[in-house]
Amino acid sequence: MKRPTPVLVFGILEIVTASIGLFGILVFFGIFIFSQLSGESIQTLSGYQAPSWYIYSTALLSFILNIIGIIAGIALLMLKRWALYTVIFLAIVNGTLTILYWNAEFVLFKNSIDVTNSVITILSLGYIGILLWFMTRPHIQKAFKS
Fold first, then answer.
1. What is the Cβ-side half-sphere exposure of residue 11, based on CA atoms within 13 angstroms?
2. pLDDT by residue (tens digit) across 30-72?
3. Ramachandran angles phi, psi of 41, nearest 5°
4. Which candidate in 11, 45, 83, 123 could, as Cys together with 77 as Cys, close a disulfide (CB 3.0–4.6 Å)?
């Protein structure tokens, strides 16, 4: 069966977004390690300083999810059934984490929300919703059965 257009689009987007995410987390982790070696601490603009364990665990989780995203995006283009389930799982995990981080930001920054971050969060959740809708359509599911 021919690969459906949404599979092509979301496969490429999964590879691109996971690659950008992986690059970003590697840059951030490099800055974090450099700041730790120089005795400085990383703080948010509001002055909040996250504990080191939080930084390390978040960086490790992001690293793992982005590696899985790249592999799943490539396999999605190859119409591997496990990749379909992996991309759906990653979308659910990323949507959950996005909501949790957005809520944590609201709590940490004393009930004030950054408009830019809110717009990015809403766009991210919209993308996740569209991905989930397309990947659960019968004609998409059928393409992975052959």
1. 18
2. 887 777 777 766 655 455 566 777 778 888 888 999 999 999 9
3. -120, 145
4. 11
Q: At 99, which amino acid appears?
A: I
**Distance from C-alpha of 144 to C-alpha of 80, rounded to nearest angstrom:** 6
CB within 8 Å of 128: residues ≥ 6 apart: 91, 94, 95, 98
Altogether, the residues listed in the chain come to a count of 146
Give pLDDT tens digits for 72-94. Answer: 999 999 999 999 999 999 999 99
Angle at 41 between CA 39 and CA 42, to 5 degrees: 145
Structure tokens that stand for 110 in this block: 């004393």
Q: Are 6 and 131 in contact (CB under 8 A)?
A: no
